[in-house]
Amino acid sequence: MATGQSTAFWLRSATHGAAINKARRAAITVGTVVGEDPGAADQPLSPAAIAVGKVRVDVQLFGTDPSDIRALPAAAAADLVLGYVGDSAGNETHTLKSV
Question: What does the alpha-carbon distance between residue 21 and residue 12 come to, in Å, rounded to a whole number?
């Protein structure tokens, strides 16, 4: 997916180490953010701040019972695997590593 794109998925399943019960839809948006790198402290001629572009991926999960979804921010990093209905009504998966 390119920067600025957003893709929605109607889910058959979702896991983050364990099943995320009753997750029904996900939206993934790719964007760019600009952060600041202060430069090296031991380099007297380095600029005070250097603008650094970074890719940012936002994931939104929607479900009929949000209790499993609400627990995700406190969970340890794991792969987020989304199972969804793909082209020609086939089963497909999309994996986001270590989120």
Answer: 11
Helix (H) or strand (E) holding 57: strand 50-63
- Residue 67's region, left for phi above 0, alpha for psi from -120 to 50, else beta, is alpha
Burial classification of residue 25, based on how many CB atoms lie within 10 Å of its CB (0-12 exposed, 13-18 middle, 19 or more buried): middle
How would you list the strands of the sheet with 80-85, edge to edge?
50-63, 23-37, 6-16, 80-85, 91-96
Task: Kindly tell me if the per-residue pLDDT of 45 is higher than 80.
Answer: no
Segment (H or E) for 67: helix 67-70
Q: Quickly list DSSP for 7-29.
A: EEEEEEEEEESSB-TTEEEEEEE
CB distance 96 to 59 below 8 Å:
yes
47 SS3 class: coil
Q: What is the pLDDT of residue 1?
A: 63
Q: What's the whole-model pTM score?
A: 0.71
